[in-house]
Amino acid sequence: MLPKGAFLQVIDNSGARIAQIIGSYGQAGQYSYIGDVVKVTIKEAKGEKVSSGTMKKAVVMETKYPTQRKNGSHFHYMRNTCALLNDKGTPVGNRVRSMLSYEFLKPRWKRLSVLGKRLF
Questions:
Q1: 8 A C-beta contact, residue 76 and residue 64
Q2: Which CATH number goes with the domain that contains 77?
Q3: 49-95, pLDDT tens digit by residue?
Q4: Alpha-carbon span 20 to 93, nearest angstrom
Q5: H-type helices in the chain, by residue range?
Q6: What is the pTM of this model?
Q7: Separation of alpha carbons 54 and 47, rounded Å
Q8: Is 120 within the bounds of a domain?
Q9: CB atoms within 10 A of CB 117
Q10: Phi, psi of 99 (to 5 degrees)
């Protein structure tokens, strides 16, 4: 559950380190959860693919807020993270430095699930 203004660590190798949520896509609520696409601004970057101060789309990968699945289990992570997307919705980086949850098995995130290490 991430509100507008929340800071996220970027876990792909796009060069960005820290991003801040400035908006969300496709939902009327004010909070973002795992798997939601959000609009972020890059606060800290190191590399050539992205520079600080630019706006990008991102998908929320991990949240500190507990996530509950339909089978009754729940889990939470120790940090809030995201992976950057381009305007077409494909990942900017070519590697994700974290385990992915089963919420990324959906066909929409097929390209992203290939980049991750394994599913959790």
A1: yes
A2: 2.40.150.20
A3: 899 999 999 999 999 999 999 999 999 999 999 999 999 989 999 99
A4: 18
A5: 110-115
A6: 0.91
A7: 13
A8: no
A9: 11
A10: -80, 145
